[in-house]
Write a structure and sequence with these properties.
The chain is mainly alpha-helical. The chain is 55% helix and 10% strand. A 3-stranded antiparallel beta sheet has the order 1-2-3. Strand 1 and strand 2 form a beta hairpin. Helix 5 crosses helix 7 and helix 6 packs antiparallel against helix 7.
């Protein structure tokens, strides 16, 4: 009762057989893996219909398609269409992945989401957001809050969509592209004169009050200056 059309070993192949009394399925092999595809449940789908469906599936495989993967992608797209970007953000910030990060990181990214991303695109369907729309959105954030904030907004949105990809909600990250604005570093090197002034201030802080910091703090700052290490 099985339908088993096959091609050469190194070419796409397919076999269809009754799985149990409840239904039938096909298995087809592409160049990388063996894929399983349901043909329907019995008695809604009888053996003749299952065979016809199997032949149609084989024709698609011969043409280079992957029917099982196509159905999976359709299901993923259908689930994504039911969710908004705000729904995804809620899932991301409540996930175990987020809980393993520093609280300061989560607070910062939640603030970027709440103040800059959610008001503009939060209600949009997860699967509807396009890369060109993200680029426009990032430029709007830059115009309103500056290039640095715009880069942060893109990074947070990209991280949220990467989470959706790992959870198999979507296939493509629309925020995955090079930053539109160059990051301007705010670091600079103190001159010897500035360092000497800073050191003298720390030294005074160990013996005099009213400078805004205690003796232990002054000693800690001198130690950080000597070792070039951040405090904390």
């Amino acid at each position: 009762s099985a339908c088993r059309p096959c091609l050469q070993h190194d070419q796409p192949s397919l076999a269809a057989r009754p799985e149990t009394s409840a239904g039938s399925y096909t298995t087809h092999r592409d160049t990388t893996a063996r894929c399983r595809l349901s043909l329907g449940s019995y008695p809604r789908t009888n053996l003749a219909d299952a065979r016809a469906s199997a032949i149609l599936t084989l024709s698609k495989v011969i043409e280079g398609e992957n029917p099982a993967r196509a159905i999976k992608e359709q299901k993923v797209a259908a689930h994504a269409a039911e969710r908004t970007i705000a729904d995804l953000a809620d899932m991301f910030f409540a996930s175990t992945e987020a809980q393993l990060r520093k609280d300061s990181t989560n607070l910062h990214e939640e603030g970027v989401w709440r103040n800059h991303i959610s008001p503009r695109i939060g209600r949009k369907a997860l699967s509807d957001l396009k890369r060109v729309e993200v680029r426009t959105f990032i430029r709007e954030v830059a115009a309103a809050s500056g290039p640095r904030t715009a880069n942060y907004a893109q990074a947070v949105l990209r991280r949220i969509y990467n989470f959706a990809i790992r959870e198999e909600m979507i296939e493509v990250n629309p925020a995955q592209f090079r930053q539109l604005f160059k990051h301007q570093s705010r670091e600079r090197v103190l001159t010897p004169r500035e360092l000497a002034c800073l050191w003298s201030t720390f030294a005074l802080g160990k013996s005099e009050r009213g400078l805004g910091f205690s003796e232990p703090t002054a000693i800690s700052l001198q130690l950080c200056t000597t070792t070039l290490q951040r405090s904390g």
